[in-house]
Amino acid sequence: MGEILELAERAWQGELRETQVAPGNAVVGFEELAPGLGFMSAFSNVAAFATDEGLVFLDTSSFFHAKRLHEEIRAWSDAPIHTAVYTHGHVDHVFGLGPFEEEARQKGQPRTRVLAHEACPERFERYVLTNGYNAVINQRQFGFPEPVFPKKYRQPDETIGGDHTIVVGSTTFELRHDKGETDDHLWIWIPSERTIYTGDLFIWASPNCGNPQKAQRFPREWAVALRKMQALGAETLLPGHGPPILGRNRVNQALDESASLLETIVEQTLAMMNEGARLDDILHSVEIPQALLERPYLRPSYDDPRFIVRNLWRLYGGWYDGNPAHLNPARDADLAQEIASLVGGAEALAKRAEALAADDRLDLACHLAEWAVQAAPEDKNAQGIRATIFKTRAKAETSLMAKGIYRAAARD
After folding, report:
1. Per-chain mean pLDDT for the chain
2. pLDDT digits (tens, 9 = 90+) for 306-329
3. Domain presence at residue 291
4. Residues 71-77: contacts with CB under 8 Å, at least 24 apart
5. Handedness of CA 69, 70, 71, 75 (dihedral sign)
6. If you compute the radius of gyration of the chain from its CA atoms, what whole number of angstroms results?
């Protein structure tokens, strides 16, 4: 058993609680899982299949790991890369082909055929349009020292609108389209191997469909996709992030419980929306099954399941949250100054925020600390209190999304 499969077993047994198995802290390495099936663990993963016509890549990983991917694959096989499939257009999945295509160019070999969903090029176009914004939010989310985001993309050669089957050599790859983390998401079923490549529909963390800084995600459709996968009776699950899951029973359990988590959040949220509840009431009423969040593959280490409620509201209800004061609101600074004048100034707000934080009411403390600085932006004491409170809040959170935003607020 190699490093990747050993990691997979330890992860399934829950032995990596203090280690973030999935997105952001991946073990980088390659292992042959079965004859002709290689798995590159990285940010993101790549599944490589050896066929009579060349290698097939499911995802291509990121620019961070393109060089390492090339080295590992070439130590395993010298065959050309015949076909690559983008499960979706997120940048950590579409930047690993460069070294292979340069190699092919030098050898006079054909360029790799790249397949993706028809919405993928539109995603790339949007990324160019919002390049600066994406650079800023990724800096905030991941703690990068500088805001950086790519401007040029390896476009797919062929796009598909729905389910599609390709045959390379003697191996059949069934490409399935379902909305989930993105609108352009594909997952792949390889019948001969009884193997599913999920892309980011499974990432060894609570599903990333509430991300507060990213475009719309689709929780209900995501659950439907997981149920489709479950019905196939796969014996191997290869995720977009994190280690493989081996064995039919384990694969079934992981897919079933991931779908169940999404389904209960969707059902509760829609039920309250249909009753006319405000977003604030729903956010504080939906119950997340803690037993599911304790599963090693559903821990809220990347996204926060509570954020899914907001995403559902945005998807089905628009941006108005039910509070009429928020429809055409006053500027944050004006509201903060008015509140400060009512309580005796920004200093009083800051001190009360400190007291609330000491009493473990960090949610309220954050509001008051933010108001204090908005009301008196030059007040160094208020700034210091705000920074301390948001640092403390970041430590108390489990999800990378929340930690990144609170840490950025503390740095500000």
Report:
1. 95
2. 999 999 999 999 999 999 999 999
3. no
4. 72/29, 72/30, 72/38, 72/40, 73/30, 73/38, 73/40, 73/48, 73/100, 75/30, 76/30, 76/32, 76/38, 76/48, 77/38, 77/48, 77/50
5. positive
6. 23
Q: How far apart, in whole angstroms, are the C-alpha atoms of residue 308 and residue 181?
A: 11
Nearest to 27 by CA among 309, 284, 241, 193: 241
What's this model's pTM, rounded to 2 decimal places? Answer: 0.95
Same domain? For 103 and 188 the reply is yes
- The CATH number covering residue 180 comes to 3.60.15.30
pLDDT for the residue numbered 20: 47
At which of 216, 235, 262 does a domain end? 262
Q: What own/partner pairs with CB < 8 Å and gap ≥ 24 does 382-389 have? A: 382/346, 382/347, 382/349, 382/350, 385/350, 385/351, 385/353, 385/354, 386/350, 386/353, 386/410, 387/411, 388/357, 389/353, 389/354, 389/357, 389/362, 389/365
| C-alpha to C-alpha distance for 71 and 58, rounded to whole angstroms | 17
Domain tally for the chain? Answer: 2
The enclosing H or E element of 370 equals helix 362-375
- 312 in a structural domain: no
Q: Residue 17: pLDDT band by 50, 70, 90 thresholds?
A: low
Is the distance from CB of 386 to CB of 369 less than 8 angstroms? yes
Based on the fold, state whether residues 138 and 60 are members of the same structural domain.
yes
Cα distance between residue 60 and residue 95, in whole Å: 6
Q: Which residue, of 262, 281, 314, is where some domain finishes? A: 262
**240 and 142 in a common domain:** yes
Provide the residue range defining the domain that includes 386.
330-411
In a domain, 310, yes or no: no
Nearest alpha carbon to residue 401 among 268, 256, 244, 217: 217
Measure the CA–CA gap between 141 and 127, rounded to whole angstroms.
Answer: 17
Residues 240 and 344 in one domain: no
Residue burial 268-284, b: 16+ Cβ < 10 Å; e: rest: bbbebbeeeeebeebbe
* 138 shares its domain with 41: yes
Tokens, residue 291? 């037993």
Does 309 reside within a domain?
no
| CATH classification of the domain holding 334 | 1.25.40.880
